[in-house]
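Lab notebook, bench 4. Still working through the backlog of constructs that have no structural model yet. Next entry is a single chain of 319 residues. Request: give me the structure tokens for it.
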Amino acid sequence: MKGFPSLPRNVPPEINAEPWLRPEARIVVGYLFLASAWIVGSDLLLTSSAFDQKKIATLQSLKGLNFVVVTALLLYFVLRRAFDGWRMAEARRRLVIEHARERFRALSAYVQDLREKDRIRIAREIHDELGQLLTGIKMEVRMLENSLADRDDRILNPAIDKLVEIGELVDDTIASVQTIASGLRPSALDNQGLVTALIDEAEHFSQRGGIPCSILVEDIPNTIPPATSTAVFRIYQESLTNVARHADARRIDSKLSVEGNVLKLAIHDDGKGIDPLILDNPKSLGLIGMVERAEGVGGSVTFSPHPEKGTDVVLTVPL
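Model written out:
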């Protein structure tokens, strides 16, 4: 995959050097040599009769100061070397983590794209091919029913009644096929746009779950990219599913708007509120999927407990 940052492959030569050739070893040897020379030289000077007592005291002070200065310099070079190595290792670790995150995001976006394409293909095949077959069966049943109804033989009444039942069963099957196809990929999302798809989803959710769900839509441009429309719709759909499963809410209010060239979807429910610890739970696959979908289109999604009651889900996507 293109666009990933490359990892540094050049290893500093001193890392593979022999222990006695490394910079810290040279610093210690130099320190020992200088300190030993100073000790021996100062002792020789101190034992010399050429110095009076005052000069000897001054030399003693300089000798003690020398140890402090040399020790401080040694610690500086050693610690600088150690911290430089730590900084380099930390920078490399961050680069590796960011590299892995970029690869994971790209893989997640690729998987989501494949899944959405499969949903579109399966939904169309179910709606078109299976729907056409069921419609053909329905027409044949109706033709047979009308043919038998034209006869005056009462013996055929049970058969006609059975054909009527079969026709009703075919109608129910066609409705189920349309529901399944719409669940895989709403036709309104491709044909009428994001706003209509969100409104239809809110209405269907209210009918299925019995929870009033409303969405307020402000001025939305018609040129929203398909990938962004799909991500916003799926995140909205997953949010409603989470509310139905976990929130025990009585109402859901949503708002879709554009603020400063940023598409914003805000969802609020009056349920029991989200547990902050669940956001860091690796088993919260639904929330993780919502985050990945948002990041896949350059946006972000936040989950927070409402100050009064319930949970707020806010999705922002730059247009």
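Notes after review: The mean pLDDT is 77. Residues 53-149 form the longest helix (97 residues). Flag for follow-up if needed.
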